[in-house]
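Incident log, structure service

09:12 report received: a user says their structure output differs between two submissions of the same chain.
09:20 pulled the input from the user's history:
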Amino acid sequence: MLLDLVAAVRAAGVPATPDRVQAMVRAVDATGTDLLYWAARLTLCGSPDDIARFDAAFAGFTRDTEPRGTPWQVRRLPERALFRTGAARDEAVAGDPGLAVQAADAEVLRHRDLATLSAAERAEAMRLLTLAAAVDPRRPGRRYRPWHRGRTDPRRTMRAMLRAAGEPRLPARRARRPRPRRLVLLADVSGSMAPYADALLRLGHALVQSRPRWTEVYTLGTRLTRVTPHLHAPDVASAVRAAGQAIPDWRGGTRLADTLTDFLRRYGHRGVARRAVVVVFSDGWERGDPAPLGEAAAHVRRLAHRLIWATPHAGRPGFAPTAGGLAAALPHVDALVAGHSVAAIEELLREVSR
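09:34 re-ran on a clean worker, output below:
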């Protein structure tokens, strides 16, 4: 049923990418088919323009002919019940007989700045972020596998000819077997990045849980701290709490050049950064001379497969990379992306998989 819905949505013009489909499956598994519409819409739609196309595809998929006034109106939920659990939300719906306008609050929440959210909104945003954190970058391995295109496989070609008594056969092809690519997250936890630090640790926890052998998380401030062992705990609250207790410079100053150089010396040259996707999440404010930060970024770029810099300021109108540290590192960065909202972090994860 879900695959038929995905096919209908794609035919309507909604870009339902494989990562969004995986997120939808997990959402349906968590909420049940009673909330299929919202589970599919919140994960498959990537922009407000997709909602109308999705509504038309979903209506054709369910063959629902009930008049609703406006597309897919739902029962009105009190604002305080918007982020309740499924049982509490069902009770609120049963007790409210009126119809409401479209409940697009979750879609709006995806585009709001994480620093401006209330506690309940932040909890819901973290749930959406966890659903979207299914990322698995790959790299070509050394071993080969049979494939429909690629280099000629002489051994398999000769075996096919021997089985045919020497008669010519189409050449067999082979390609390198893909292997997981390491993902390294360097999160700035200084005072200027404090509103986003908790979200970054929760994102790191989701990535470590999905790829425990191929994900490393470090924090940058006045010193470098490796928090990956703390994020292996299954419970996100206890994992984030343990990681926070292990960070001695939470909400402190910023020494990006020193901490990035320390990362290279202690971990990068030992294989952590080699052929990896390195994501630096920072606003780029550097206390000292920004030139050493540019040199450290260039060094990381030579070791890594890709260097991605995410800053919460990139999503604001009129943004320009004028901060000293960011301007020094920018020539060595493969992609500069925003990271201020759930939608921006989803775009960052798509950039990681690219």
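09:41 both user submissions now match this output. Likely a transient worker issue. Closing.
09:42 reviewer note: Strands lie at 138-147, 151-152, 173-180, 183-188, 215-220, 224-226, 277-281, 306-311, 335-338. Residues 138-179 form one domain.
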